Amino acid sequence: IVYCLGDFFLTRTVDEARLIRRRLNGSIRLIRGNHDQIAEQMRNEFEFVKDYVETSFELPSGKKQRFVMFHYPILSWRGMRNGAIHLHGHAHGETPFVPGALRRDIGVDANNFF
């Protein structure tokens, strides 16, 4: 399962986007970004297309970790005082640091394109 936190399409046409999507493995869940205007035309290519997701995953330790995923960085999110981690894109590594905030810009350009 892969969560894409937006801007999957950037300036691509629907045909170009379909070719790219078909090369990717896994079940992709798209959290729509500001460059995803054609997302509705490709809704069937993704497990889901949403604007915002709150979910939790079980860690190898057995502990559940809560995540809040949104394309845009936000200053306050549900569960932030109880360890929920906010994952976002959009900011290209320019999100101001907030001491103690469990927030991460997961955009490739903010992470050496990994």
Q: How many strand elements?
A: 7
Strand order of the largest sheet: 4-5-6-7
* Mean pLDDT score: 91
- Give the N-to-C terminal Cα separation: 17 Å
Helical residues, percent: under 10%
Order of helices and strands: EHEEEEEE
As residue ranges, the low-confidence spans are none
How many alpha or pi helices? Answer: 1
Described by strand count, sense and barrel closure, the largest sheet is: 4 strands, mixed
Shape: globular
Key terms for this structure?
single chain; 114 residues; mainly beta; four-stranded mixed sheet; three-stranded parallel sheet; 1 helix; 8% helix; 27% strand; globular
General description of the model:
- By secondary structure, the chain is mainly β.
- The protein has one helix at residues 14-22; strands at 2-4, 28-31, 48-50, 52-58, 64-70, 85-88, 103-105.
- It has a 4-stranded mixed beta sheet, with no helix packed on it.
- The longest helix has 9 residues, at 14-22.
- The protein is globular, with a radius of gyration of 15 Å.
- The mean pLDDT is 91.
